[in-house]
Write a structure and sequence with these properties.
With 105 residues, the chain is mostly helical. It has four helices and no strands. The protein has one domain.
């Protein structure tokens, strides 16, 4: 692989890491559980992207396996978050009143 391609992959990985750092700020500040969940999904996706970029830059095929496992764990983590904590729709959400009426008192 040409040297400039390797350098471009390292620079792209650094850019994605900067995006992950911004996502950490959103996880901390919130303001709602939904924002935190989406930021956590961004962190998982960003970590997978960094691992894939580093696998290409460092010619380390084992990082591809790690990225695949991390992608699977990130999707499971999102499902667990929704299951345990739940995400409430905002007030005035279309269809919210109809669903509440169907469920009964």
């Amino acid at each position: 692989m040409p040297e400039w391609v390797t350098l471009a992959l390292w620079i792209a990985a650094a850019g994605v890491l900067a995006t992950i750092a911004l996502g950490l700020v959103r996880v901390e500040r919130g303001p709602s559980n939904g924002d935190r969940m989406l930021a956590a999904q961004l962190l998982g996706t960003g970590a997978v992207a960094v691992l894939l970029l580093l696998a290409g830059a460092a010619d380390a095929p084992a990082l591809l396996d790690v990225a695949l496992v991390l992608a699977l764990l990130a999707s499971v983590a999102g499902a667990v978050f929704v299951r345990r904590i739940g995400v409430q729709p905002p007030e005035g959400h279309p269809g919210l009143e109809e669903r509440a009426a169907e469920d009964g008192p």
